[in-house]
Task: inverse folding
């Protein structure tokens, strides 16, 4: 069974990128007036927050599994 891992990119009030969110949370923020819809130059949907927020992003690590050979 395939699992959809879609995420919506999020821009802070000043345009800096913050942690992506789920489509349902993005929809709730849009309906509440706390965000505006935006489109990237790659035609990807995202939101821009209209209220101040924290600019914290979690530390991420890229791991590559080469498998067994």
Result:
């Amino acid at each position: 069974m395939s699992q959809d891992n879609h995420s919506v990119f999020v821009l802070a009030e000043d345009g800096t990128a913050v942690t992506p969110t789920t489509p349902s949370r993005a929809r709730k923020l849009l309906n509440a007036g706390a965000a505006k819809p935006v489109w990237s130059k790659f035609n990807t949907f995202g939101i821009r927050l209209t209220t101040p927020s924290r600019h914290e992003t979690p530390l991420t690590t890229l791991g590559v599994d080469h498998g067994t050979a």
Notes: Residues 9 and 46 are 5 Å apart (CA to CA). Residues 8-49 form one domain. The two ends are 27 Å apart (CA to CA).
